[in-house]
Amino acid sequence: MSIRTKLTGMIALTIIVPVILATVISFWYVKDRERERGLQLTEWSLERGTLQMERYVSDLSRLPTSLYANRDVLDILEYGPGLSLEQTELEVRRALLGMYLSREDVAQIQLLMLEDMDSFAAYKMKVSPRSKRQPSEIQQQLLKYEESRVLLEASHPLVPYHDFGPLVSEEEVVTLHFRLDKIETDQPLAILSIDIPEDVFIGQLASLQNNPSESLWFVGGGNQVFAQLGDDEIPQNVSTNSLSSDGKHHRIVKSFEFENQTFYVGKSIPDRLLTEPASRTSFIIFVVGMVSLVLALIGATYASMRLTTPIKTLTSNIWRIEQGDMTVSFDSLGNDEFGVLGRQFKRMIERIDDLIQREYRLALENRTNELRALQAQTNPHFLFNALQSIGTLALKGDGKTVYRLITQLSSMMRYTMHPDESLVTLKREVDHLTSYIRLQQVRFPDQFEIEVDVPEPLLDLIVPKMILQPLAENFFKHGFERDGATAANRFSVRIHQSGSNLVIHCENSGRDLSDEELTLLKERIEVSTEPLNGAEGTGLKNIRDRLMLNYNREAQFMLATPETGGFRIVMRFPAVTEADAS
């Protein structure tokens, strides 16, 4: 977090926080106001549209009443065709054609005379001859309906009432069924059915639609749908003058009464349309705020660059010093306070560099001496065991075996003759372990099983010296049973690479350690900083200490007791090649 970043961030916060607060507050305030205003306007508009729909249906229902003004047609309906059937048919057809031509929004008209079930129909400027036809289901319902002489049938496909040939166009229509009664006795005389294209009612709804996302519908009782515009579903239960919301949509419903029937005109508006003005207002506020922020950031960046460029130069030079490059220059800082600071800092670095070089040489010498001490602590321990074994065989007079032991021992001593050599290849370490195992095989023939599994590609890796042979020595010291069977004395070393780490997995068939003993051993090896002075775990501690000296926290040294018994040691440390080690 540089001064430039802090300065720029502070200026940004002083602008962006008020802008965000203003945007959020204005959005929520304006959103509620705009939603309320939008719903009021929509309700007012829908109320006018409902009144317009009521007037249209009422005006449509007055069309059949024109037949009451035609006395000849009324007499035909009341008394029958009379003496001249041809004249009667002509009079009825003329009346239907005149009614059909009086309105452009009529698709089809049927007149069904109930006396003899004679039917006439007008469609596409044609009037059908008289035919026999039975009342439809809704026409029968109208005959039984005492509360009104008018029934409005829901939207359905257009079906010709007579054979006019193929339909000119397939369309949906809404049918107005009007029952013509005798004025004096209310006796049903005929039923006049008028088909109105559904598009007429959709056009009425379209005049109330302000956005294509809005949905409108014109329905009646029993969920009869006369017209629908939009994709939103029509509510199952529509109530009079209702206003409802599900959080995403707002529904407003208006109703009107006609001939003892209730009709509903509803509208569904997405909430986003109502709150869109609030979003635009908030967006404008946000854009203005962002423009102000950009301008402020440009000014702050320019000012901070003039102020912080010397500091960045000083910081970059300090970073170079941290990486070990002590040859730095502060000549570019000028002659002001930063220039003075740079020159003083340069002199201080030169003095520190001298002290570091001296301290570094001392540290290297101390580390080398510590490694030598650890290695020397291991060698006498092994030498004592080897010489004791050779002395025992010499007393027995087995000269060849003694010679082999001395040869193996000399090979091992050559390996340990260079205490300055702290890192070796894995191949040399494995060869040293093999020499030690051959010594022990001569001492204890056919008394133990040894497994050494090392993939050949890993043999060129660099490992700390003397980390494998002490593991085998630990087995013979603490886990080997001289009188036991071969299968009871097992020792295995398996080495593999896991990612960038080298893993050494060692197990032996020594005695099982209890949890308390294992914990105590771990504390001695990992926690204790004092020499163990011959106590159990000396070899293991030496190995762990050398791993930590070479790899610090990147190394792991783990002890465990397997479920199958015995003792397990797992070492994990970085897999380093000879080039990386150098």
- Secondary structure: number of strands: 19
Tell me the fraction of residues in β-strands, as a range: 15-25%
Rounded mean pLDDT score: 80
Helix and strand content put the structural class at: alpha+beta
* Biggest β-sheet description: 7 strands, antiparallel
The value of Rg in angstroms is: 53 Å
Task: Provide a count of the helices.
Answer: 14
By oligomeric state, this entry counts as single chain
Helix content: 40-55%
Q: Low-confidence parts, pLDDT < 50 over ≥5 residues?
A: 531-535
**Dominant shape:** elongated
Measured distance between first and last alpha carbons: 37 Å
GO molecular function: protein histidine kinase activity
Enzyme class: transferase
EC number: 2.7.13.3
Pfam families: HAMP, His_kinase
Topology:
Elements: H1 3-61, H2 71-79, H3 85-101, E1 108-113, E2 118-123, E3 126-127, E4 131-132, H4 137-144, E5 150-157, E6 172-181, E7 188-197, H5 198-206, E8 215-220, E9 224-229, E10 243-245, E11 249-258, E12 261-270, H6 271-274, H7 276-322, H8 337-396, H9 399-415, E13 423-425, H10 426-443, E14 449-453, E15 462-464, H11 469-478, E16 490-498, E17 501-508, H12 515-527, H13 538-551, E18 556-560, E19 567-574, H14 578-581
Parallel strand pairs: 14-16
Antiparallel strand pairs: 1-2, 1-7, 2-3, 2-4, 5-6, 6-7, 8-9, 8-12, 10-11, 11-12, 13-15, 16-17, 17-19, 18-19
